[in-house]
Design brief:
Alpha-Beta Plaits, six-stranded antiparallel β-sheet, two-stranded antiparallel ribbon, about 20% helix
């Protein structure tokens, strides 16, 4: 998974999602800001996907994408950087699955498996969500989810989840 990362850097995949205040622009700006984090370089970006909300359904559709980055940041330093980007975009956490200006989640951090308060890698529900798996496998078709298997192998189980591919991020 880390063939594109420079020595001392890990290949990391970050999910982006937005359904408020110009979601396409929120995701596009979020991509640029992720790539501008210290010791981090944007390697690839998926297309944008329009998806129906999950959990709380009384809200607008989401725009989702996945970024592949190379970073020398630790998982917690990367998380801190992502949370700072969310705050700059006006993210408010009112309740679980609430509408949001920008949501950034670490999906995979190399082959690391980590379960700590506030950070679980791989993302615990990524293998159940088409809005993560489809953009992820678009940019990394053979990527493995540590402890689970190939991400592409989980797509069939998500066939009932509706996604619409839009343009590139």
């Amino acid at each position: 998974m880390s063939e594109d990362a420079a020595p001392g850097r890990r290949t990391v995949f970050v999910a982006l999602g937005s359904n408020l205040d110009g979601p396409r622009e929120q995701v596009a700006r979020g991509m640029l800001e992720i790539g501008a984090l210290p010791e981090t370089r944007l390697l690839k970006r998926s297309s944008l996907y329009r998806t129906a909300p999950v959990g709380y359904l009384e809200q607008p559709d989401f725009i989702n994408a996945v970024a592949m980055v190379a970073t020398a940041l630790t998982p917690h330093a990367l998380l801190d950087g992502l949370l700072a980007i969310e705050r700059r975009h006006g993210r408010v956490r009112e309740f679980q699955n609430a509408p949001r200006t920008l949501d950034l989640d670490i999906l995979l951090y190399g082959d690391l498996m980590l379960r700590e308060h506030g950070l679980t890698v791989p993302h615990p529900r990524m293998h159940e969500r088409a809005f993560v798996l489809l953009p992820l496998t678009e940019i990394a078709p053979n990527v493995l989810i540590p402890g689970k298997g190939r991400a592409a192998d989980f797509l069939a189980a998500c066939h009932h989840q509706q996604l619409e591919r839009l343009d590139a991020a």
